[in-house]
Amino acid sequence: MAALLLLSSLLLLSSTPLQAQQNITLNSSLAPQGPSTSWLSPSGDFSFGFRPIEGNNTFYLLAIWFNKISEKTVAWYAKTTDPDPVLVQVSSGSRLLLNSNGALSLQDSTGTEIWNPQVVGASYAAMLDTGNFVLAAADGSTQWESFKHPADTILPTQVLTPGMALRSRIIPTDYSNGRFLLDLQTIGVYLYTVAVPSGYKYDPYWSMAVNTTNLVFNPTGMISIGNQSEITSGVIRSIADYYLRATLDPDGVFRQYMYPKKASNQSNQTWSVVDFKPPNICEAQLTNIGSGICGFNSYCIWDSSNNQSICKCPDQYSFIDDERKYIGYKPDFQPQSCDLDEAAVMTQFKLTLVSLVDWPLSDYEQYSPITKDQCQKLCLTDCFCALAVFHYEDNTCWKKKIPLSNGKMGDGVQRAVYIKVRKNNGTQSEIIDSNKWKKDKKNWIIGSSLFLGSSVLVNILLISIIFFGTYCTITIKELPSMQSSNNIGLPLKAFTYTELEKATGGFQKVIGTGASGIVYKGQLQDDLSTHIAVKKIDKLGHETEKEFTSEVQTIGRTHHKNLVRLLGFCNEGKERLLVYEFMTNGSLNRFLFGDTKLQWNIRAQLTLGVARGLLYLHDECSTQIIHCDIKPQNILLDDNFTSKISDFGLAKLLRTNQTQTNTGIRGTRGYVAPEWFKNIGITAKVDVYSFGVILLELVCCRRNVELEAAEEDQKILTDWANDCYRCGRIDFLVEGDDEAISDLKNVERFVAVALWCLQEDPTMRPTMLKVTQMLDEAAAVPSPPDSTSFVSTLAQHRSCILSY
Hints:
Oligomer: single chain
Structural class: alpha+beta
Number of domains: 4
Largest sheet: 6 strands, mixed
Membrane topology: Single-pass type I membrane protein
CATH architecture of the largest domain: Orthogonal Bundle
Low-confidence stretches: 1-21, 425-450, 465-490, 652-665, 787-804
EC number: 2.7.11.1
Protein name: Receptor-like serine/threonine-protein kinase
Family: Belongs to the protein kinase superfamily. Ser/Thr protein kinase family.
Organism: Panicum virgatum (Blackwell switchgrass)
């Protein structure tokens, strides 16, 4: 009862009749420069208006800040009202106007509106002493308030409800959306790392899961979830003597601060931390995707004396950007080339021990049992390996590659970590002291003679090279040969044809066929007897050679958990081969349509994996990749049933300034989007369509076309799924699947996402980012349109689908 009374008092306090405040009348305005740049609260504690961005005299925030303290700390700043709100920045010629219609409008120097709180008819505005800026009706009721649209900070009396969130800044002086999110849900409060700039949520690194509806910052200084659990226990003895705020800081820690209101020398005062969550963010964070708390190739150290996280890097590594350290670290040396033999590697590289530091993820190879020396050698001679981890208790070795993620330092690290760096050896040419030449005339004469002789020799060599190069250029132009493997310029192993012929036993065991070649199983003759899949391209037309080069260059630059990894290639004479990691469980096709059926929860995880792989290809590569042939046969499964997209032979690359491409029909019947049959541009949305088909196949565990189906309306899966969804009988799609039947809510969500992906109009289909968010429940799934065009289009293309 006491807690309910407290909550009621908070709500009353936040909705006190505004007539007692210093109201801002209609037709009032502010400008970044001039006599009126802000509106004050009655006490002058808070100010609302234009605030210059630190270190930038050109742009301003529309913000609320603590006005009486020297730091002028910002507590709120305007963002757009888009699904993923972004920072609003304005130049000196902008203006904020509360117009005669009761609408608040922020306009740039040209008069174009760039922000408004989407409220019309307000009678006045007010900056309250609570730090809340409001637009109010004539009766004093609140029509809009900044408390309901927080940025990175909450203040006493502020209440967050489910669906509201705090987003950290990217760095203290840049108010753009940062890497951390406090998300209030109906089941509790969660702290996430997020992908910048998309806002995609990785795994939570701290949470307090309780059944509640509100997060409350009460006037005593305590922050709690409803009336159940305290998030911070920072009760201040005399609340009247301190300013309070709680901020999700750029380092991902949610801290509660206090600042003395009365002090003899305000310039010497600063915000002090009252409480914070999580207690040690370096230990709390672990995400399968993303860098973790610090940037890639760095590690996090928790400084308990200052309650701060510190990001550091190994020797011979440095920040990519000293100011934006979250971007990560880069090696200061040229990475190991895969062309080096073992002797050269031993001469140029070494492994150094990094004490009490661990990067728990990024493993790509594991050995056990094994010795420490063997572990180090395996990493040192592997051009992919950047770091080796050895566990003494069970004699286990892990190899990791760049980028390293989730790094941390702590006394609890019980494994030996060895990082690969260049040797600081003394093999450089000897530097000769010029003073010695001056002191020794004989040496000077000898040195001059050597220099002149060397110059003559160099000139002769240069002339020879020019003539030889000209001859070679002419000769090469006459040969219809493809560029040599050495010119592809990728960190991949260049295999000889003999090596791969031996590894595959003369190309005997076929494990798959594709549009551009046959895939064979093989085993390398290395220390680990590595199993491989070798794709042999048999046709050697000009377009196929082009396709081979494109595929090598494309896959060599990609790296993602849900993409099949390319290990190397062979480009010898007329032979073109690609060497992939071998996927133990084969293709998804085998488990969807064969005798062995996958459980519903495994199918759901496979769906997410495919979605994330496509998201990487579409949005996260430096060059966008459209796969063009997404189907179960091109989705492979490793021994942990992780889904990985394969076969980029049909990938169509787009330059960064392109949005679509025109090409002939590509893909496999049943999975091709309608636009393939029309004379319109092809975009990444063709992959979204194909994914929608696969999503339905994963839900229903059947092929998208089954001509032998007993019922006519069930022959085309996309038609049948649409009918079942509209009739509210999703259970028909998973009949006989008890696990899926018990999870019909998620089954329905997956089907709805699939129907969005299958829209005829490509612009109506969501992006793979949106698809992933809907599948992850990070975004709501609205009911997909049931337009007549959707059903008619599928009917129109049915003959195409069956005959193509």
